[in-house]
């Protein structure tokens, strides 16, 4: 008897990333309009410099609240947009805050100095000494300048992630100081009960989002699931797989392609969190990560003992089947970037082609698993070996290996240079952007 398997249903035409992005833009635009309404309702100062200063201060406050939402790691946004893109938006919003608050400080200072006939420095000192909340605003602005300076690419490359993150945490101090400044002297804040309620609501939602996404959800999930190391398996001389078990893992909303921030609670590692992708699709009984030794922290993973407690934050990431637009797929992995690709292959329906790019056969970790999985699912697997030059995934080579590449979703994960080269090749081949799915591991502070 022959069973004919029907092809998988085509993915939905509604793109979750577009829905989430449009929703964010719409909410921000609505709040821009509301702030303008309340500002106009409060009346205008006679000095144009003060008017401009107040407007820039209000929009600086709104951007600060918006930035907190971006960095809150809310599951609905993270699954649809991805932490890497949210982090990028967070970074550029931070520079917007810096410039709007700088404009606020300059215009307010010169505006009041113009009315009193003193210099701007003397006016700042006088306001800080005599007006409630101004000194707190000066401190908050100083913190924002420092955080902005260490967030510049040149400075960021010179700092360890833990150092950068510790400095970045002072942003929350600046937010609290800025809010108390707004409460104390903000004329728009106190112009009406509706304006006061609105601003309390904005700050409540922003700060509540951070507490929910960064504190409550991780604590609740770790208390519920009680993660522990159940197996440590060396895959090669510098790659290790770690299996994590726990309670009620079938209720953990993790998907193939996602990652967690793993914190192994040993005496020398409890303070260090590392982002590692799942290297197998979640099965409701265990989670598996596979990591390459890239530093002292990841190199020490092979020495973890079975039974070690784990604090896991996540799951995070939009590199999942949620964003499929086609019934067939192309999976491209480079090096240890095979980990989420291997998990995705396990989860994908429809015909798939897998390209695994490595320097040599011995670098192809998890290859046996990938080969067996491809055989079981009827997928094509190509191991592409050789040095980076010449490019083995150039447009001509990709078109030869996958002639129908334009009719497939493309999932890409690997080292940044390799990913950039493949993205250029896909662009040259005319693959639509909405069919290309990738994620760069970036952590928002």
UniProtKB/TrEMBL annotation:
**The keyword Iron is assigned to this record:** yes
SUPFAM superfamilies per the record?
Ferredoxin reductase-like, C-terminal NADP-linked domain, Riboflavin synthase domain-like
Transmembrane segment boundaries:
24-42, 48-71, 92-113, 133-152, 164-185, 197-220
Coiled-coil intervals: none
The reply on keyword Transcription regulation is no
What CDD domains does the annotation carry? FNR_like_3 (cd06198)
Q: Which domain of life is it from?
A: Bacteria
Q: What is this protein called?
A: Ferric reductase
Recorded source organism is Streptomyces pseudovenezuelae
Taxonomy of origin reads: Bacteria, Bacillati, Actinomycetota, Actinomycetes, Kitasatosporales
């Amino acid at each position: 008897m022959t069973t004919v398997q029907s092809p998988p249903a085509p993915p939905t035409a509604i793109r979750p990333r577009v829905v989430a992005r449009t929703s964010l833009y719409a909410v921000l635009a609505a709040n821009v309009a509301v702030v303008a309404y309340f500002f106009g309702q409060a009346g205008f100062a006679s000095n144009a410099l003060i008017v401009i200063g107040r407007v820039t201060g209000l929009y600086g406050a709104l951007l600060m609240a918006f930035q907190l939402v971006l960095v809150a790691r809310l599951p609905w946004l993270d699954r649809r947009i991805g932490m890497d893109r949210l982090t990028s938006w967070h970074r550029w919003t931070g520079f917007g805050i810096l410039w709007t608050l700088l404009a606020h400080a300059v215009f307010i200072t010169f505006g009041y100095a113009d009315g009193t006939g003193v210099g701007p420095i003397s006016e700042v000192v006088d306001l800080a000494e005599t007006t409630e909340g101004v000194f707190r605003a000066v401190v908050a602005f100083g913190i924002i300048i420092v955080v902005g300076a260490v967030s510049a690419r040149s400075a960021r490359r010179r700092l360890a992630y833990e150092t950068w993150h510790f400095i970045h945490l002072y942003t929350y101090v600046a937010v609290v100081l800025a809010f108390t400044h707004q409460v104390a002297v903000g004329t728009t804040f106190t112009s009406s009960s509706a304006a006061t309620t609105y601003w309390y609501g904005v700050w409540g939602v922003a700060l509540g989002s951070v507490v929910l996404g960064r504190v409550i959800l991780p604590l609740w999930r770790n208390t519920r699931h009680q993660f522990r190391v159940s197996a440590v398996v060396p895959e090669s001389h510098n790659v290790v797989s770690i299996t994590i078990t726990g309670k009620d893992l079938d209720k953990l909303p993790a998907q193939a392609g996602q990652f967690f921030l793993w914190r192994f609670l040993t005496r020398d590692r409890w303070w260090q969190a590392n982002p590692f992708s799942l290297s197998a699709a979640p099965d409701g009984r265990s989670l598996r990560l596979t990591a390459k030794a890239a530093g002292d922290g990841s190199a020490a993973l092979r020495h973890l003992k079975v039974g070690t407690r784990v604090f896991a934050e996540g799951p995070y990431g939009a590199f999942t089947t949620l964003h499929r637009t086609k019934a067939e797929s192309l999976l491209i992995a480079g090096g240890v970037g095979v980990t989420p690709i291997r998990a995705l292959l396990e989860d994908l329906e429809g015909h798939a082609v897998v390209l695994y790019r490595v320097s040599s056969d011995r670098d192809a970790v998890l290859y046996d698993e990938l080969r067996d999985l491809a055989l079981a699912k009827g997928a094509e697997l190509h191991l592409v070996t050789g040095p980076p030059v010449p490019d083995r995934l150039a447009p001509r080579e990709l078109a030869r290996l996958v002639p129908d590449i334009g009719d497939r979703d493309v999932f890409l994960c690997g080292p940044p240079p390799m990913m950039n080269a493949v993205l250029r090749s896909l662009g040259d081949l005319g693959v639509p952007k909405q069919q290309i799915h990738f994620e760069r591991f970036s952590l928002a502070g």
